[in-house]
Every structure is written in structure tokens, then in C-alpha cells.
Amino acid sequence: MTVGPPLPADLQTPCLVVDRDVLEANLAGMASHARGLGVSLRPHAKTHKCLEIADRQLALGAVGLTVATVGEAEVFADAGCADLFIAYPLWAAGSRGRRLRALAERVSLRVGAESREGVELLASTLAGTATAVVIEIDSGHHRTGVTPEFAGEVAAAAQGGGLRVAGVFTFPGHGYGPGERERAATDEARALGAAASSLRDAGLEARVRSGGSTPTAALLDPHTLTELRPGVYAFSDAQQIELGAAGWDSVALTAAATVVSRRGRNLVLDAGSKVLGADRLPWATGYGRLLDHPEARVTALSEHHATVSFPTDGPLPDLGSVVRVVPNHVCTAVNLADELVVVADSALIDQWPVAARGRNA
Amino acid sequence: MTVGPPLPADLQTPCLVVDRDVLEANLAGMASHARGLGVSLRPHAKTHKCLEIADRQLALGAVGLTVATVGEAEVFADAGCADLFIAYPLWAAGSRGRRLRALAERVSLRVGAESREGVELLASTLAGTATAVVIEIDSGHHRTGVTPEFAGEVAAAAQGGGLRVAGVFTFPGHGYGPGERERAATDEARALGAAASSLRDAGLEARVRSGGSTPTAALLDPHTLTELRPGVYAFSDAQQIELGAAGWDSVALTAAATVVSRRGRNLVLDAGSKVLGADRLPWATGYGRLLDHPEARVTALSEHHATVSFPTDGPLPDLGSVVRVVPNHVCTAVNLADELVVVADSALIDQWPVAARGRNA
Fold it and tell me: Chain B closest CA to A94's CA: distance in Å?
């Protein structure tokens, strides 16, 4: 199997390579899906961290961007993005609070909240700004977020502190398991619906009911959700393929790597955990996949070595040849790179800085 | 338990914090250990990637630095380090070959090799330079490297191609397992000794017999090894603690993180896999440890969330408080950060750029 055109010659491996045409198809496909359902698309920019890709998402109809940190929000605000949602229960104290307030004074800003203490800090930090608070709900991933029934109480505290409450959001991360996507999408809709009821009981309207992840995006309930926040769909990755949420033809980003060693049916590549990331969910079949060799598995990973095992009897890539590795989790792989090499039809056409790389604070 | 002085106030979490005094003690301790054994110390700079730390290692007697990539070598060469060992089986083709040759013309350079094909490329790339080749041996980690008995054949090919052969090296990575350090150190010495014999049989001298990792450094055989290449010892990490290779008082680097959410005995911190790295060897008890709460475990990790479980009945850190997380694997954590915050006695005294961050090619 060979997917798409070959790589340009003499790439400095390891490096991350974006296929511009596949990226564009992914972006257009999700935009069309959201439009068809009548749901707003607010892509999570933590996946790509690139101004060029954010621009395309907004041009294709996204209502704004989702980010995870104040630092990411600053990068996209500096580049002119006027509508940002920090989908994270920020602790808005000290210098982080001051940076958040400065952001709120120059863009349309939404921030997540899930505790009374967090809401109190936001209220004192953001007093007098138009920032909207969105209450985070746990829909089954059990990471952050309140139970749907408690949403009204946190929302009322926010309202009481002088904050504007826009609605509720959740991340159905428990959809990242084989056979779990349908259940997670159902849980997501149920939790957002119940949280909206809880706000109603507190005299508040959940105008925004925001959910969606790449694995559940195709299954979302447009009667309950008003907004979709997928990130990975831009590039796809090995997790999406192994979950059955995307096909090989959706892979827009790979790590170009050189075969540096060979021992029997095992090859070693020069892209290790400092390029691919070390993410490996319990059900993953390895540390990544090879785009042109779906039968192979990355069976071991260290900082600068990926060991790839070929189980069958077919030909092996030669020493010195360049192969394309599909990272397990593209968000962490992108965050390791300073730039993305952009190709179209086997030609290097651009290099995009990963503008928000490492902006974790 | 509280280890060392508290952190300075109002750090922008998450961030990586280096305790200068613990770092200095770690650097001096390993330098003294190597000196006492009469073995050269050539620290692996992939751990810290910082010019300031490399300077201290060299000032304390290191004979040069070890690096993993041409890009890392370029950074340290630019900063004046005159003796570099790229301990990796480089594929020296195309632009990488040209960069390698440029390096060889300005510093004292050693490069790894483990295949005839790799050696042929090095020979044509480095013809006429003083670069030395060091043959990589597999001492039991089964990643890269030839069997000791085959070392002479690869070395003879290098010599035949006009390259200078300095000796042999190995990474006893199989020492990264509970109870495996002693066996790995024994394997390391045996493999290097056998490889030296193989070179002798081919009429070559293995003047350099280089080994050593942080877990095996204390156990090395100074009759066989001439050189030691540990990296992690500068900072230590949770893997070293859980292996029994270092104590809590050796931890010189932590991720400062804020408690953003709480549910029962579980807290969520704002340092996730984009700060700590997702490394987790099968025997690790979690995704990292807390310096001041050894009973706690990082039980789940996503990009911007670390879930910490406290198993006992003691007090929990408050929402909004800052805790110190010890990454499982410090090398990958450092490679995620643009700079390290340096503290001494609870005061912020410096910020060091991670100069070779992301230089994977």
C-alpha cells in the first residue's frame, strides 16, 4: 500500500510533514459536517498551533477557536483571531489573572470554570469585561468538570459574582476507547442536556452547549449541542485510525524518518519520542503506524529511536530510506516541532511555524 | 515530607524549575565518581540541552560532551564545546552528511556506527577529516548496535574506508528495570570487553570503551570501561527514584504546577503531557511523582491535565496551590520547555534557554 504522493527528496529527518491537500480536505469536511447539522464549529487549535491552519478553519466558517491555555490564546489573539474559548478550568490568580484580563480587553473571550473557588477568582479578575463563563461538565471522562446536576449552582455563583454565563461544555474523552464512541456521544448529549436543565432551574439559560471531540464528532446530537470543538480532525493520527474514527486517507501529518539500523524483521528509525511523543493508550497496537506499511508496528520507542517490527514476509525498507510515521497522538507530536514542512504533489511548498508550541502557561 | 526550600511566589505554571544547589551537587558527585575510578566522564547533553549546564560539566572535568544528533552537536559546537561524540548510528547522506562534515572541520568529533552501509557513507562524507568512528555494541538492550563478535568486522570496514577507529560504545538500556541494574552493568562490561577483543583480532585497538547510563554508573567496571556517558544524573527523575538508582534528595528539576480541580482524593494539575512528557515504562507507578507528597501518584495524564491520586487520609493541597511534580523521564520533559527557571533558596536567580530543544535532526 502506498498512500498519496512520495515525499520530496533530501528532507532533514526527522521532521513533521503536512500534506496540504489532505489537510484541506479534512478541514473542509468537518466544516461541511457542522454546517449540515446547523452546529457551530470552534476547532481546538491545540492540535496544530499554527496560524496558517487557524486562518483556513476560520475562512471555512469556524465561529472562533478553542484553546487550552492563556498562552495559546495570546498567540492567536496577536494574530488577529477575535473570538477565543479557553476550554479549561483556569486558576486566574497572580500574573495569569493579569494576562487573562488583558486578553479579555481585546478579544471576545470565553473561559471555562468548574468550581466555586475558580469562579470567584474569575469574577474578581474579569470584573467589568464582557468575558463569558462556560461551566465544564463531566460527561463520563472523569477528568475535570462538575456533574450535570451541580452546573446550575456553579453558574449561579458566577452570575452572582458579576460574570456573564454563556452555557455549558464537556469533553467526551471516554470516547477514546474501542467501541466507546457511540456511548460517549450519547453521554455527551445527555450530560449537556441535563446541565442545561440545571442552569434553567437556577434561572439561567445555557445558550452554548459545547461538546465534540474528533472520535464523537460524526455521532453528535444536533438537537442538544450547539457547538463542536474537535481538534485532531485537521491531521488525524494513529489513534483515530485504530479507533475506527478515520481512515488512512485522512492522515495529513506524518513524521518523515530515516531507517538507520536493521536486525532481521526489525528496523530502527531516527524519529523517537522527542519527535512522535510517547503517548500510548492501553489499546494502541504500538507507538505509531507507518503510512505505507500498515502491517508494521512501532514496538519500542526511545528518545531518538523507533523500533519498527514487520510481521510478514514482504520486502523491508532499505537502510537509509525515508518512511512516513503516523504518530499515535498528533497534538503532542506537533508540540515537539518548531515548524511543519508543507508538501503538495511531492513538492515542498511551505514551512509553517508551530506558533503556539510550548505555550502551556 | 518537604524536600528543600519552597518555590518562589507567582511562578507562571506550568514551568520547569531547576534547584541550582541540587544540580551542582549532582554534577560534582558524578565528576568525583568518575575521577575516583580513573574513567573519563563525557555527559550526555540530550538530558539538559543547556549551555550553562554543559559549561559546569566541562569545568568539573568532563572530557567533552555526548549528543544524539547533528543538530545538538551544532548547538554545543557553536557555544565553544570543542570535543563532541554523536553516540548514534548516523545515516550521513545528503544535507545531513554536509552538516556533519562541516562539524568535523571545526571540532574534535566522534561518531557512532554499527553497519557496513553506515560506515561506507561516513567514509565518503568524512574523508580527510580527523573524525573518529566508534562502533556501537548491543550489550543487551537490543535497540541498535552489533553483537560484540561482529565489532571487528565493522571496525575493519571503517578502517578500510579511511576512517579512524577510536573504539567501541554501548548503552546498557536494559538496566532501566527493577532489579536489572547489576545485570546490565555486568553485561555492559562483558560486551565492551568482547568487542575490544574482536577489534584486536582484526588488528585494531579499542582505545575507547565507552558505556554507562545513570542507573548503571555506580556499578561500572573501571577495568573494562574507559569512559562514562550518563545524562539523567544532572537532574534525576521519577524513573531513577523508582529504580532505586537515586534518592529524593537528588531531584534537581521539577515541574511547578497549579491545582486546578479537586474531586475527593483526586486533584488535577495544569501540567500535562505537553510539560511532563508521556513516558511511562511498564513498571512505573504512574506518570510522575510529587516531590512533597511521595504517597501520591499521577494516575492519568492528558495534554494539560495531570490527575493525582492521594491514597491516604492526610491533608490535600488546596485548589490554587502550587506543587512540584517529578517527571518520569526528565530528558523528554526538558525537551518540551523553551527555558528552565533556576532557583536557589526559594529565589528565582536565572532562566536558562533550552538551547538544543527540538534539535532532533
Answer: 6
